[in-house]
């Protein structure tokens, strides 16, 4: 493990200690990863008479949903299903059979948050037939196309979808397809020693109430798993793209893309395909929170910065949502990244050099440059406008990788002598001068003139 400065270690541990002490958490453990390596762990409180370690199991609750999401995406990548397929095709008999798998993965199906019957998180779970029968017209919100609405029930159904397509219980698929390849040997269906007891802390007295930890039955895919700090730090690395062939990194990036957001255009929290999303202080975090009676946990990763954070606690409530972002902030403050030294590229195609420099979309200036990995980067001159990176295709065209032009085609226009005249980006014409009259701009281009 990389050694942090003593001042950094103390600042991180103090933040954890304040959280545990002020919020009266029986035990709390946290850790950070950077560049594929665990760089810090810390714990406070007691589990079975001693301090928790990175091998102490806690229940991780809804982080389980991300494992279900990965299994669904593996089935998609294998061609076993399409994300736009309707649920009825695989799990018939519900009132949401006309909703797509995508909508279940992104919590936009309109399904109710909880299944019919008793409070499922504190009672022994029932069979899948009972779960499906309870998803009737009463389990659908009045305006199901309204947008994001978190649904534990939806992931119970997705777990059954996986089980039917694989021909085995969902957890066996989790173990064989995800946990074993990633070396997450301490992530299990039920608790295995050493593990923490889940507690509720009395709001007005320093006493504890033991919480039950029942098998969720058909609802288990929504929140059953137990894990350790070490395994969850490995999971944070997976979210960042260290997938060990469990999934292609581009599929994980697809899961991290916002499919539903909570608060409009300038969103701060959203949901992808099995991953919760947070935007904070310039970071784009993906992962999941977990909450079951007696336990709280969170794992979040910044794929762009290859940094991740995890905390686990054995309390029903009390850990602040700011803990994970505070720990990341302290790391940035005390040990910001040292930039890699700049070195010139070993090779750049000469035909790409003539594409670089200033371009105009109408009167708006853009800059096109070559990135070290051979991609093209098209960005507005002063940061106002649409930006995207592009990857070269075999036919000489380019495909957008992100931003507004993700998936769109960029073609280089040339004159009869082969010189570059314009760029055609999905019908938008970029020229070397604003509205170049010699470029094929729809509607033509007249002359610039003073105000009459």
Outline the structure in words.
The chain has helices at about 5-20, 65-75, 100-105, 130-135, 150-165, 170-180, 230-240, 250-255, 320-335, 350-355, and strands at about 25-35, 35-45, 60, 200, 210, 225, 260, 270, 275-280, 285-290, 295-300, 305-315, 355-360, 365-370, 375-380, 390, 400, 410-415, 420-425, 430. With about 450 residues, it is of the alpha+beta class. It has an eight-stranded antiparallel sheet, with helices on both faces. An eight-stranded antiparallel barrel has the order 13-14-15-16-17-18-19-20. A two-stranded antiparallel ribbon has the order 3-6. A hairpin with a 7-residue loop joins strand 15 and strand 16. The radius of gyration is 25 Å and the shape is globular. The relative contact order is 0.13.
Helix content range: 10-25%
Shape: globular
Beta-strand proportion: 15-25%
In angstroms, what is the radius of gyration? 25 Å
Mean pLDDT metric:
93
Topology as a string of helices (H) and strands (E): HEEEHHHHHEEEHHEEEEEEHHEEEEEEEE
Summarize this structure as a short list of keywords or feature phrases.
452 residues, alpha+beta, eight-stranded antiparallel sheet, 20 strands
Give the SSE map.
Elements: H1 6-22, E1 27-34, E2 37-45, E3 58-59, H2 64-77, H3 101-105, H4 128-133, H5 152-166, H6 170-182, E4 199-201, E5 208-210, E6 226-227, H7 229-240, H8 249-256, E7 260-261, E8 269-271, E9 276-280, E10 283-292, E11 295-302, E12 307-313, H9 322-334, H10 350-353, E13 357-361, E14 364-370, E15 376-380, E16 388-392, E17 398-400, E18 409-414, E19 420-425, E20 428-431
Antiparallel strand pairs: 1-2, 1-12, 3-6, 4-5, 7-8, 8-9, 9-10, 10-11, 11-12, 13-14, 13-20, 14-15, 15-16, 16-17, 17-18, 18-19, 19-20
Helix pairs in contact: 1-9, 2-5, 2-6
């Amino acid at each position: 493990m990389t050694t942090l400065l003593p001042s950094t270690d103390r600042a991180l541990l103090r933040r954890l200690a304040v959280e545990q002490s002020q919020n009266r958490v029986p035990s709390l453990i946290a850790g950070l990863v950077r560049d594929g390596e665990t760089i810090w762990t810390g714990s406070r409180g007691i589990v079975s008479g001693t301090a928790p370690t990175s091998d102490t199991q806690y229940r991780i609750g809804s982080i389980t949903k991300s494992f279900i999401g990965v299994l669904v995406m593996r089935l998609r990548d294998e061609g076993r299903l399409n994300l736009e397929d309707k649920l009825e095709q695989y799990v018939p008999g519900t009132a949401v059979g006309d909703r797509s798998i995508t909508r279940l993965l992104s919590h936009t199906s309109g399904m109710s948050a909880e299944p019919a019957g008793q409070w499922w998180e504190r009672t022994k779970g029932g069979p899948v037939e009972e779960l499906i029968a309870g998803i009737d017209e009463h389990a659908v919100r009045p305006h199901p196309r309204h947008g994001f609405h978190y649904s534990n029930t939806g992931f119970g159904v997705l777990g059954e979808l996986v089980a039917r397509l694989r021909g085995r219980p969902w957890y066996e698929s989790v173990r064989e397809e995800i946990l074993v390849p990633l070396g997450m040997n301490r992530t299990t269906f039920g608790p295995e020693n050493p593990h923490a007891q889940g507690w509720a802390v009395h709001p007005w007295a320093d006493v504890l109430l033991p919480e039950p930890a029942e098998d969720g039955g058909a609802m288990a895919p929504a929140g059953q798993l137990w894990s350790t700090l070490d395994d969850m730090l490995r999971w944070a690395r997976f979210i960042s793209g260290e997938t060990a062939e469990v999934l292609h990194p581009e599929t994980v990036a697809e899961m991290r893309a916002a499919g539903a957001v909570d608060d409009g255009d300038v969103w701060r929290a959203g949901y992808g395909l099995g991953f919760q999303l947070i935007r904070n202080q310039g970071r784009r975090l993906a992962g999941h929170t977990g909450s079951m009676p007696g336990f709280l946990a969170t794992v979040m990763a910044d794929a762009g910065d290859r940094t991740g954070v995890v905390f686990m606690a054995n309390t029903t409530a009390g850990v602040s949502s700011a803990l994970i972002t505070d720990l990341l902030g302290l790391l940035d403050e005390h040990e910001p990244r040292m930039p890699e030294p700049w070195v010139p590229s070993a090779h750049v195609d000469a035909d790409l050099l003539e594409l670089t420099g200033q371009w105009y979309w109408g009167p708006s200036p853009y800059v096109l440059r070559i990135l070290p990995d051979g991609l093209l980067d098209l960005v507005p001159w002063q940061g106002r406008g649409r930006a995207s990176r592009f990857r070269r295709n075999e036919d000489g065209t380019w495909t957008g990788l992100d931003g507004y032009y993700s998936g769109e085609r960029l073609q280089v226009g040339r004159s009869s002598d082969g010189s570059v005249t314009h760029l055609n980006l999905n019908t938008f014409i970029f020229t070397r001068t604003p509205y170049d009259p010699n470029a094929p701009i729809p509607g033509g281009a007249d002359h610039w003139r003073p105000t009459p």
